[in-house]
Amino acid sequence: MRLASRALCGAAGVAWRESFPLGGRDVARWFPGHMAKGLKKMQSSLKVVDCIIEVHDARIPLSGRNPLFQETLGLKPHVLVLNKMDLADLKEQQKIIQHLEGEGLKNIVFTNCVRDENVKQIIPMVTGLVGSSYRYHRGESLEFCAMVIGIPNVGKSSLINALRRQHLKKGKATRVGGEPGVTRAVMSRIQVCERPLMFLLDTPGVLAPRIESVEMGLKLALCGTVLDHLVGEETLADYLLYTLNRHQLFGYVRHYGLGGACDDIASVLKQVAVRLGKTQKVKVLTGTGDVNVIQPNYPAAARDFLRTFRSGLLGPVMLDKDVLQSPLVAGP
Question: Model-level pTM?
Answer without folding.
Answer: 0.87
